[in-house]
Design brief:
Shape: elongated
Number of helices: 10
Structural class: alpha+beta
Distance between the termini: 94 Å
Length: about 300
């Protein structure tokens, strides 16, 4: 068997790469690229019009890429070495050697892309956090995942990250997403009234999404110099995340000011003690005193 495979490998000659074969390979790759681009464009346009099915339709794009490119690769291999089973086995061995020597990072990214597409830890259209990057997933490619950050920057992340980094998805394929809005008031303000005002701002927002499975919560926490009030609620479309938070904040503060609820006062630290200690340290230093006491007299 090994001798047959060796003879089959030796039978592959570069003389076989005539212009017609090269043109056929190029034609196959161009057609595959065009099918992926056109179909992906049409599917993404359709997803934008599909409402609640936007994310489900968008996830057909990476699956389409795999099918089309795998078919194109198979056709190219068949054109080069023919349908011989022994040649396919031999080519697979050479292919594995190439991966081991110089292309392991590339194929690690491709493998990560396959894991993302089939296991779906996140989907196109999700809001995810990977390391220091946060944004909406715009594309899951064979080698990298592209996200758009809130400041409209595009970040490309190699797909291998799925094996060694944690990924947080804010919506897990749903259109709605939990948002958290914090408001801070002075300690002497009426906390219960402030909570009622924030509650009204949340439930009356045009961006809010409230069901039995998607409830909202108004929480409070006391700090040394102020009180924090937190609203946890779902936005009806994750793309309106920041509009929702701004809407709640602006309308809540407008009503709080009418009811005498004030933001926290700015507490300036007492620096007189620090200045006194610093002056004594400098004086002792210039007087040659090695032992410096930080205790007040």
């Amino acid at each position: 068997m090994a001798e047959n495979i060796t003879s089959d490998i030796s039978s592959i000659s570069f003389d076989k790469f005539d212009p017609g074969l090269l043109i056929s390979i190029a034609y196959t790759l161009v057609i595959a690229w065009a099918v992926v681009k056109i179909s992906g464009f049409l599917l993404m346009r359709l997803s934008e019009r599909a409402g609640q099915y936007r994310i489900a339709i968008a996830m057909m794009v990476p699956l389409l890429k795999i099918i089309v490119y795998a078919a194109a690769l198979y056709l190219v291999i068949i054109q080069v070495i023919g349908p011989s089973l022994s040649l396919l086995v031999a080519f697979s061995g050479l292919f594995g050697a190439a991966i081991g020597f110089g292309l392991k990072d590339v194929f690690a990214d491709i493998l990560g892309g396959l894991v993302i597409i089939f296991e779906r830890p996140f989907k196109i259209g999700d809001k995810i956090t990977v390391g220091d990057s946060y944004g909406e997933v715009k594309d899951i490619g064979l080698r990298a995942t592209r996200i758009i950050t809130p400041d409209d920057s595009e970040v490309s992340i190699p797909n291998f990250f799925i094996f060694d980094k944690s990924v947080s998805s804010g919506n897990s394929g749903s259109m709605e997403m939990m948002t958290v809005t914090d408001i801070y008031i002075s300690s002497d303000s009426d906390t219960e009234k402030a909570m009622r005002i924030l509650k009204e701002a949340v439930i009356s927002s045009r961006y809010v999404y409230i069901t039995s499975n998607r409830p909202y919560k108004i929480l409070t926490k006391n700090y040394p110099y102020f009180t924090g009030i937190r609203a946890k609620a779902y936005v009806n479309d994750l793309r309106y995340e920041f509009e929702f938070m701004s809407d709640i904040t602006v309308r809540a503060w407008n009503e709080m000011k009418k009811n005498g609820i004030c933001p926290p006062l700015v507490h300036k630290p007492d620096i007189s003690v620090n200045e006194e200690v610093s002056g004594r340290i400098m004086a002792d230093f210039f007087n040659g005193n090695d032992s410096v006491s930080l205790k007040r007299d």
